[in-house]
Amino acid sequence: MSGRFRRFRRSRRFLRSRRTTALALGAVGAALVAVVAVPVATAGEPAAAAVIEVGNANELRAALTSVGPGDTIQLAAGVYSGVFRATTPGTAGAPITLTGPADAQLRSNGGGYGLHLDGASHWNLRGFTVTGGQKGIVTDAADEVHIDSVTVHGLTMEAVHFRNSSSNGSLTNSTIYDTGNDGRGMGEGVYVGSAGGTGDRSDNILIRGNTLGPGIGGENIDIKEGTSGARIIDNTFDGSGLTGANYDDSWVDIKGNDVLVEGNTGVNTTNDGFQVHTVQNGWGCRAVFRDNHSDLTGASGPDRLAINVTNYDPADCPVTVAGSNTVTGGNGLVNGGVPITD
Q: Closest Cα partner for 259 from 301, 237, 290, 236?
């Protein structure tokens, strides 16, 4: 462990002992301590947050183990080889932050998850790059994980997965490309929930302002049954990596409920722009589409619709398609029987 890392942890022990030290030194000594130490809470209050600077993989693993609510792990530029896992949660009032520049790369060359937040709720992830391995960033039972301005690429499977009832998280202003390199059509850019049931309630996920593609070997975004309240806003899609395996023939596939899709732009699809499916009874309902712009030029699939709603029922499973959506090429905006609203 480097001296730099030890210094930051030592400062926390020093803060806890400052009050006792000040009393022993007297008034003059206390004044001197105040000059060299940051303010510290009294007994019963939480310890002051630390900034933990790391510069290699071992330091990062140590920081992920020792970090506490309110702390920040600051990555230096460089390559951090291996896979990394965090299990310590922050709190609503004191989230944990992992941040670094784009040239701070978490790089796995042997499979696994580049960064796994396992039960680690209330984390902020900012700026760095995750590449190599099987999956990029995975959250399991981790609420309020907010991912901003990261780059994820070069994976055999999906890039970012909110899983195992990880709710109220977000992915914003990020870049995802070159996924699903094993060719099985399991390289989604953003994957919300789990297939095969409705027990994964990864709800209220915001996906906003991201650049998805090229080279994503699956849907750019896949919203699974069992999840509700996802918001897909102001993203740019490139479906040039669609494989056709596992029915991936659109930028976005929605099987959850109450999904808002607004202000997105897409190019290069094999069939449709957006699809809504019911794979479990009562799911794939109440999606709302507004102000999306689909370029279907070159699509060769059987439907070639900007928005393909496969199970529209105005009473039990409605979908709203606003007239502000536009389409270039293909066979139209939406399938017959689905009204276009003002």
A: 290
Each residue's pLDDT tens digit, 169-216: 999 999 999 999 988 878 999 999 999 999 999 999 999 999 999 999
pTM of the model: 0.88
Residues 84, 227: Cα–Cα separation, whole Å: 27
Signed CA dihedral, 318, 322, 325, 326: sign only:
positive
Q: Would you put residue 8 in left (φ > 0), alpha (ψ -120 to 50) or beta?
A: alpha
Nearest to 311 by CA among 335, 341, 340, 342: 335
Question: According to the model, what pLDDT value does residue 46 have?
Answer: 56
The 252-254 sheet, strands edge to edge: 84-86, 113-118, 135-140, 160-163, 190-192, 221-223, 252-254, 274-276, 307-309
For residue 247, give Cα distances in angstroms to 32, 110, 158, 219, 250: 69, 28, 15, 9, 9
State the residue for tokens 């042997």. 110
Q: 32 pairs with which residues across the strands?
A: none
Q: Which is nearest to 205 in space by CA: 154, 157, 251, 257?
A: 257
Contact status, residue 139 vs residue 163, Cβ threshold 8 Å: yes
Closest alpha carbon to 148 in 191, 184, 187, 98: 98
| CB contact set of 93 (below 8 Å; sequence gap of 6+) | none
Tokens encoding 97: 């932050």
Closest CA to 234 of 255, 215, 212: 212
Q: Is 164 within 8 Å of 202 (Cβ atoms)?
A: yes
Cα–Cα distance measured from residue 295 to residue 250, given in angstroms and rounded to the nearest whole number: 12
E-assigned strands of 67-166? 72-75, 78-81, 84-86, 96-99, 104-108, 113-118, 123-126, 129-132, 135-140, 145-148, 151-153, 160-163
